[in-house]
Amino acid sequence: MCALAASSRSVALDTESDSLHSYYHKLCLIQLSFDDRHVVIDPLALRRESLRPLAEVLEDPGTEKIMHGADYDLRVLNRDLGVRVAKVVDTQIAAQLLGEEQTGLAALVEREADVVLDKKFQRADWGARPLTPELLAYAAGDTAYLGRLRATLAQRLATVDRLTWWQEECRALEDVRWEAPEPDPLAFDRVKGSARLKGEARDRLAALYEWREAIAAGQDVPPFKVLHAETLLALAQEPPADLEALSGVRGVGRGNVRRFGPAILHALASPPAVPPRPQRRRFAVDRDREARVKQLRDARDRRAKELGLSPGLLASRAALEEVVDRRPFDQVGLRDCLARDWRSEVLAPVLIPLVAAWRSPAARSDAQSA
Description:
By secondary structure, the chain is an alpha/beta fold. It folds into three domains: 2-173, Ribonuclease H-like superfamily/Ribonuclease H (Nucleotidyltransferase, domain 5, 2-Layer Sandwich), CATH 3.30.420; 187-269, HRDC domain (DNA polymerase, domain 1, Orthogonal Bundle), CATH 1.10.150.80; 287-369, DNA polymerase, domain 1. Helices cover 54% and strands 8% of the residues. It contains 18 helices and five strands. The chain has helices at 2-6, 52-59, 70-81, 91-97, 105-113, 133-144, 146-159, 163-173, 199-219, 229-237, 243-247, 253-269, 287-307, 311-314, 317-326, 331-338, 341-358, 361-369, and strands at residues 10-17, 27-34, 37-41, 64-67, 88-90. It starts with a helix and ends with a helix.
């Protein structure tokens, strides 16, 4: 299969993971479509080294990989297979550059290929085995129409002279890598509703949260399948005195009382004190800087409206702030702030004059002499 794929000019690629059904989410399926073939690979049945022929195909810059919303898939492939997928073309980005309001795969396939994709298995457990023929067919459908979608979107981009924009965005995807999240000792503070807990109630929430994480990791299930966040909050606010009271707390259930009751009561009875919430740092608002950011934002928004694009696709607030701070003199300098040639080309005529107006004569003279 890999030899056949390697000989193809382009391969449609997608993956499925089990992030909704496990604690240690993993790559569960890899789907490929090329030359009228549709292949579903089970990476759980193969060792990583056994998948090396596939990795070589994915890393080959001579074979185009057609993907839709590639960012997460690229990170998982990098993490689990150690690959850096080369020559990626992302059909979702193409749709965004065309100003499409609905850029999901099903909506685009229906509009561009007149095919209705059934998305009823979107939340399926892809780590379960065996997979039914219906699930396999569903998975294969995610790549079956990407080649046709890529062709029609590329043609439309060429018509409006945005093909080079797409090519630049896709080249940037080759730098996407998996980055492990940093451990956060205050992760429990992100539980919805935790802000209203103080003192020992907050300590109890932290202890319960840590206990739930340990149980979920040991059983390889999502934490919410052990106890929901609302239940954690209820227990932390009003800790039950005994197992009978614990069984009456909504969301605990008899099964959890039977298996974990004593451990839950112990966590609630003597929780260690946790660090206080970090104080929010108060920064003085730089009104001149904010006014300049607003100037740039308004100009960006007008240009985005003219092009029929989402303003954020042209430039994020962080990029506009960098423009304010660095005050580029020309399109080359603007590119360093916006990270794309096409963005600087589109925005330079409206942003550079604004930046130039901010400079004092002395600063302009210094820059020219430099």
